[in-house]
Each structure stands twice: as structure tokens, then as C-alpha cells.
UniProtKB/TrEMBL annotation:
The keyword Transferase applies. Residues 53-319 form the Sulfotransferase domain. This is Sulfotransferase. SUPFAM superfamilies: P-loop containing nucleoside triphosphate hydrolases. InterPro entries: P-loop_NTPase, Sulfotransferase_dom. Belongs to the sulfotransferase 1 family. The keyword Transferase applies. Its EC number is 2.8.2.-. Gene3D superfamilies: P-loop containing nucleotide triphosphate hydrolases. Keywords: Transferase. It comes from Rehmannia glutinosa.
């Protein structure tokens, strides 16, 4: 990773829009970022030089990042269940913009951990859209994993996250002035949502997966939920860490799937903790809520479902991506 000095992005020069109460998002390259990450996203884009052995997990917020972090770590390091029992997936797989490049000086991670088969392998996560990160990701043979999730549930997960958890940090006002659900849906649909527009975020990585399937593993939360073992096996092969051995392949896969399941992960003391990591002032347990498919049916009226479905048809279906 390089440590070159770069220009600082001036927030006041960027288009801004309120997304809840008087909190603003800032537009960079067509995407809406929270002010806390504008500079660090800029640093990642300008300074991060991925190694060809790196794995980059990309996602839109609240689409299954925590789950994929635990799966990727388990696939690369095998038998990671003891580590997962004591460490948050977010500490095992650091975020480029939230942690590694959070400070203007030296990037935080300089050592290269060794994987199960003694190859060097670093795993990072990011919410940065492909449109902003294309040059970086294509500058090496690093592999990308992208997870996405049914758009109808996205405003719900974020709405819960904001209203329940952000009161613990500087956004204490969420307690007094909760984010109205209709506003969350509206902001999601018009794109003024952290890292939004969601549809452009997904399409950036989806198009890459259609053009260069060997570069990126594109998977949906729902596919993983419905058939975790098949997808974990495929993911391991894609990453170059296939499950091998004549007899116990199925047991190995089962162990990874089980140790990363919502039920097991969310019950570890570390993941139930109300403490916050020092890089993001929300408690560790805020990353676990329900972990279910179809929760939107409990929240969205028919009209909202039709509104999001129409948007989804318009944005996704032309390229054959169905939701
Ligand atoms: P819900 O709000 O629908 O419950 P992210 O990790 O990208 O922030 O996404 C959080 C969502 O993933 C939350 O969804 C959370 O409950 C769910 N989640 C976290 N860990 C999971 C796991 N191991 N398996 C399935 N879903 C998980």
C-alpha cells in the first residue's frame, strides 16, 4: 500500500443533500457518501494498490457484509470458528474506508496474514461503488466478491440501523427525532441514501461480473440463504481455496456454513456486545438484527412494494438481473 500525500477533498465544494434530520450526504462521482468517509474514500481511490493475492469484498451497506466477511475469512483460513467466536467479522476483515484508510497518515494494515495454504492473502471490505474504484480494482489481479440483497428490504435494514443504533454516537438526535419510515423509503428510491443510488451501486459490479466473471464473484444474499453449501463451495473455488480431500469435503463445507450462520454468529459474546469498535461508533450487536429473507412483507404496503418493484424492473431487468 502506498502512502503518498494527496489533495484533500473540500466538502463544501461537493453537492450535498439532507437524508435525515439535518444530516447531509455528499455527492462524489454520482454517489452519496456520509461526510465521515468522504476523505477516506478519496484516499482509498488514490492510494490503495491491491496485491494480486488480495480479496476485496464489496457491498452496498446492509446487504450481508458481516456474513460474507465471516465466510471469506473462514474459507481462506479454514476452521476459523474459534476466531469467529472471539472476534467480530469486522475486525477480521477490515474496511478500507472505515478503518485501513480512515486516518490521513499511514494506512493501518501493513502486515500480510498467511492463509491456510501458506499463501499471503489479505481480505478487505469496501462499500465504495465500482464506478469509483474501477481503476484500483483493475490495477491488479485481485479478486472481488460482491454481495447484494433484495432492494425491498434495504430501506428497512437501514431504517432500523439508524433509529436503533445511531443514538449511541454523535447522532443522538435519532432518539428524539426518529427517521420516519416513509422518508427512508423515499430516500432509498431517489438514491439519496448512504452509498446510493443502490441500483447504480449494484449495476456497477453486476456489469463487471458479466464482462469479467473470472474477476468477480457476484452473489445475492437470497441465493446464499437458500443454498449456502453450494455457494460456499463455488466461492472457495473462485478464490482459489477449494475444499479438498476425498472424504470430508462435505463436513468442511458444513462447518464453515454453520459457524458463519446468523444463529451461531449472532450468539457469540463479541457479537452480542454493546461495545463499539474504535473505527465505527456503533455497537457490535448492531450488525445483527433478523437475518431473514422477505422481511419487507412485514413493513411495506402494496403501493410501496409496487414502487420499488417498478424501479427494480427499470434498472435491473434489462440486463437480465432479476429481483
Ligand atoms: P437484517 O437487518 O435484515 O436483519 P451488513 O452486514 O451489510 O451491515 O448487513 C446487515 C444485515 O445482514 C442484517 O440484516 C443482519 O441481520 C444480517 N446478517 C448479519 N449476519 C448475518 C449472517 N451471519 N447470516 C445472515 N444474515 C446476517
Amino acid at each position: 500500500m502506498e502512502n503518498s500525500s494527496t489533495e484533500i477533498l473540500d466538502l463544501s465544494s461537493l453537492p450535498q443533500e439532507k437524508w435525515w434530520t439535518d444530516e447531509c450526504l455528499y455527492q462524489v462521482g454520482g454517489f452519496w457518501l456520509m461526510p465521515e468517509v468522504v476523505q477516506s474514500v478519496d484516499r482509498v481511490i488514490k492510494q490503495f494498490k491491491p496485491l494480486s493475492s488480495d480479496i476485496i469484498l464489496a457491498s452496498f451497506p446492509k446487504t450481508g457484509t458481516t456474513w460474507l466477511k465471516s465466510l471469506l475469512f473462514s474459507i481462506v483460513h479454514r476452521s476459523a470458528k474459534d476466531r469467529l467466536a472471539i472476534e467480530s467479522p469486522h475486525n477480521l476483515v477490515p474496511s478500507l474506508e472505515m478503518l485501513v484508510y480512515a486516518k490521513p497518515n499511514q494506512p493501518l494494515i501493513t502486515n500480510i496474514p498467511f492463509s491456510t495454504n501458506n499463501q499471503s492473502c489479505r481480505i478487505f471490505s469496501t462499500h465504495i461503488p465500482y464506478q469509483l474504484l474501477a481503476e484500483t480494482l483493475n490495477s491488479s489481479e485481485c479478486r472481488v466478491v460482491y454481495v447484494t440483497r433484495n432492494p425491498k428490504g434495504r430501506p428497512i435494514s437501514m431504517w432500523h440501523f439508524v433509529n436503533k443504533w445511531h443514538f449511541v454516537n454523535k447522532w443522538k438526535k435519532a432518539k428524539e427525532k426518529p427517521w420516519p419510515f416513509e422518508v427512508a423509503v423515499d430516500k432509498f428510491c431517489n438514491g439519496t441514501f448512504p452509498c446510493g443510488p443502490y441500483y447504480d451501486h449494484v449495476m456497477g459490479y453486476k456489469k463487471l461480473s458479466m464482462e469479467r466473471p473470472s474477476k468477480i464473484f457476484f452473489v445475492t444474499y437470497e441465493e446464499l440463504k437458500n443454498d449456502p453449501k453450494t455457494h460456499v463451495k463455488k466461492l472457495a473455488e473462485f478464490l482459489g481455496y477449494p475444499f479438498e480431500g476425498k472424504e470430508n469435503v462435505e463436513e468442511q463445507v458444513e462447518e464453515v456454513v454453520k459457524s458463519c450462520s446468523f444463529e451461531v454468529l449472532s450468539n457469540h459474546k463479541v457479537n452480542k456486545s454493546e461495545e463499539s469498535p474504535n473505527w465505527f461508533k456503533v455497537p457490535y450487536n448492531s450488525f445483527f438484527r433478523k437475518g431473514a429473507i422477505g422481511d419487507h412483507e412485514n413493513y411495506l404496503c402494496d403501493e410501496t412494494i409496487e414502487r420499488i418493484d417498478a424501479l427494480t424492473r427499470e434498472k435491473f431487468h434489462s440486463c437480465g438481473f432479476m429481483y
